[in-house]
Design goal:
With about 240 residues, the chain is an alpha/beta fold. About 35% of the residues lie in helices and about 20% in strands. It is built from eight helices and ten strands.
């Protein structure tokens, strides 16, 4: 009988002031993660760091050195996915651990989950922090209809075209458009928004979600100024709703 693939959420960032695992990962989820001896993770080193921290609040059933960790990231070829599921198909429970937030959402694990369904393996998603949902919740924008668009183009002309397209889509359907950016390009993206989108369009930026420095600001684009919110190298989620 096949085991279960548990989808294990991770914290959204490093915090020194209080325990990140205890604060944002439910106790029941910690207990499930602590008993597993097989994990698929984006990075084995950071997965071990997560397990070490987890062990402070939920004692691990196995020594960290005995927990098998295999990597799945953007460089993993599709033909390698089956082998990652073989231990679970053989009857061993395993976990898909996100690098940050929840697995398989803006995360390379989605294909593994699809393959698990194809092979008849039970998939159990576990509750944890999702930066996308937290940003929508805190934005005050339309939470009944929203779309996540991943990363926008790096090229300035393509990015401008994409922003105008997202604004038009939002205006037509009154749908909140959500995306993420590489932290060091946040300022450039804000400049592009101010240049290419209507001043009446609402823009919400959420930074450092679940961290002590968490900040969420929603304003019309005309009211956004470069000094309104420090964005440089801070993890951010952008949400837009055209009026």
């Amino acid at each position: 009988m096949a085991g279960t693939l548990f989808l294990i959420p991770n914290t959204l960032g490093k915090r020194d002031e209080f325990d990140p695992v205890l604060d944002v990962i439910p106790a029941g989820v910690q207990q499930i993660a602590a008993r597993l001896d097989y994990l698929v993770a984006e990075n084995a080193k950071t997965a071990r760091a997560f397990l070490k921290k987890l062990g402070e609040t939920a004692p691990l059933a196995h020594a960290i050195q005995q927990i098998e960790i295999r990597e799945l990231n953007v460089n993993t070829k599709s033909e390698a996915l089956a082998a990652l599921l073989d231990p679970i198909a053989a009857g061993r429970d395993g976990g898909l651990l996100s690098e940050a937030g929840v697995p398989a959402v803006a995360d390379p694990g989605a294909d593994l989950v699809r393959l698990a369904h194809t092979r008849g393996i039970t998939v159990r998603p576990l509750v944890g922090p999702s930066s996308i949902l937290l940003a929508v919740m805190g934005s005050g924008l339309n939470g009944q209809s929203f779309a996540f668009n991943g990363y926008l183009p790096v090229d300035a002309d393509e990015r401008a075209k994409k922003l105008r397209d997202l604004e038009q889509r939002s205006r037509k359907g009154q749908q909140t458009q959500v995306w993420i950016e590489t932290p060091y390009r946040n300022g450039t993206l804000l400049d592009a928004l101010r240049q290419h989108c209507s001043g009446t369009t609402l823009l919400s930026i959420a930074v450092d979600l679940t961290l002590p420095t968490e900040t969420i600001v929603t304003l019309p684009i005309s009211a956004w100024r470069p000094d309104r919110l420090e964005l440089h190298k801070r993890p951010a989620i952008f949400s837009l709703l055209a009026q």
